[in-house]
């Protein structure tokens, strides 16, 4: 069975979810697909969304009319067997959705993830593996746990596995520049020490 065939079966199964998981309503969860597995994620909580909102209100006015900012939208590469749901994606405004009504990686310019308290490995490991494999040119991780951000760019397979050639680390208070877009991280709140995402 090919990776794409496995992916399509998992995608069909994912799309059959009609009821919540563990007694919670369906809206409380969404799922991603990577490495032949369905990964069930809880939906972002208010602290996470507050950071995402401040990022969005800074970034969106800077985008050219040919670009759009999508929030929590499926991004899929069936050939790789990957479906991810980035917190934010800068995409071509006129992209054609995939057959499954998702964003195609070739139309993405920047993906942003806001790290959650209890699933940081998803952003720092899983997505840091999948996004360069998908050819995403820029990936920004914003981490309100410790007030840092990392910009990764220039995807490559030079080392034998998909990775980014370049990275730059920031502390909250710095201005992050990606493709000429500027994000002032001084306006981003950190999580409370006792926050539960």
TrEMBL record:
It comes from the Bacteria. InterPro entries: Nuclease_put_TT1808, Restrct_endonuc-II-like, Uma2. CDD domains: DUF820-like (cd06260). Keywords: Endonuclease, Hydrolase, Nuclease. Pfam families: Uma2. Residues 31-178 form the Putative restriction endonuclease domain. Gene3D superfamilies: tt1808, chain A (3.90.1570.10). The keyword Hydrolase applies. GO terms for molecular function: endonuclease activity. This is Uma2 family endonuclease. The lineage of its organism: Bacteria, Bacillati, Actinomycetota, Actinomycetes, Kitasatosporales.
